[in-house]
């Protein structure tokens, strides 16, 4: 065996289905963003529209974290160790949005 | 004796050592936990935005009749409506939509680089890493333009009562924005814009630097000699996270 053969690295040919899957996820993200734009201009601002935006953002986050970052295909332990701590964020949202409203009321009462 | 040990080993828990319980390398696991902590930082910033916005009055009139005033929080689509080379034309959220698209595309090329790395395909890794870097730099360029436009402001000023050179001036003509006052709305609006998009932009910048290091190492054959392209996966995780954060910034800063 010559040294040239020794340093040669075997390149595995690309799996077409896997690459198609990547572009499919990219397509979902693009379509979801396009739908967000439709809602941004076709619907009046309000609680319902805000929740539609939040819902679509979570779906997009699911695709990015699950497929692009590959978390969906990792060990269960890893998935839960990343997802469970984020529940603290939910509490912070509730607490600070409530606090924001309270500050607004205090300002109005001046 | 040896068979007895093997029999005990089979009953052992995955957490008893000797193997990776989460089936991920140390580096990858630590990247995940770093990103989790970084997610808390960005959550803190975006939730602060929500809180400060709720502590200000909301604009009550119709979208068409909207004018800038520091008496209420602005409608984002009325603030971000400029596109380079199309001066004076109102194109709400178009430029930020383009930026979103650029960042998502650079995330896609990153996945393709990771996929090529798993196949030991050096040429493809180098190619996709280069596209990812180009995407990142384009995004940064767009952000630089957006900041510049935000700071310099529109053609018409907003009248506001502010302190100029130590003196209280009423109906001062305000153009653009700085950390003390801005023409778009309450002072906090511009401060949060600079803070949140700036913190994200810093992440993009460091991501581009990391991507470049990975690109350089892949190009010079460091990973091929090492026998694996795991570095591409680790930096890939960071880059996707930057994209993920932008998705949230886009929704909570520009859409809602």
Q: Can you tell me about this structure?
A:
The complex is a heterodimer of chains A (110) and B (256). By secondary structure, chain A is mainly alpha-helical. Chain A has two domains: 1-73, no CATH class; 75-110. In chain A, 77% of the residues lie in helices and 0% in strands. Chain A has helices at residues 3-7, 16-42, 47-68, 76-83, 87-109. The radius of gyration of chain A is 23 Å and the shape is elongated. Residues 1-6 of chain A have low confidence and may be disordered. Chain B has a single domain (25-56, 67-255), classed as Up-down Bundle (Four Helix Bundle (Hemerythrin (Met), subunit A)). Chain B has eight helices and two strands, in the order H-H-H-H-H-E-E-H-H-H. Chain B has a two-stranded antiparallel ribbon. In chain B, a hairpin with a 2-residue loop joins strand 1 (158-164) and strand 2. In chain B, helix 2 packs antiparallel against helix 6, helix 2 (26-54) runs parallel beside helix 8 (230-255) and helix 5 (122-152) packs antiparallel against helix 6 (187-219). The radius of gyration of chain B is 24 Å and the shape is elongated. Chain B starts with a helix and ends with a helix. Chains A and B meet through helix 2, helix 3, helix 4 and helix 5 of A and helix 2, helix 4 and helix 8 of B.
Annotated CATH architecture of chain B: Up-down Bundle
Biggest sheet architecture of chain B:
2 strands, antiparallel
The level 1 CATH classification of chain B is Mainly Alpha
What is the CA-atom radius of gyration of chain B, in angstroms?
24 Å
Determine the fraction of residues in helical runs of chain B and give it as a percent range. Answer: 55-70%
- In the CATH hierarchy, the third-tier topology of chain B is known as Four Helix Bundle (Hemerythrin (Met), subunit A)
- Tally of distinct domains of chain B: 1
Termini separation of chain A comes to: 87 Å
* Distance separating the two termini of chain B: 68 Å
Q: Biggest sheet of chain A, in brief?
A: none
Beta-strand proportion of chain B: 5-15%
Oligomeric state of shown chains:
heterodimer
Number of strands of chain B: 2
The ordered H/E elements of chain B are HHHHHEEHHH
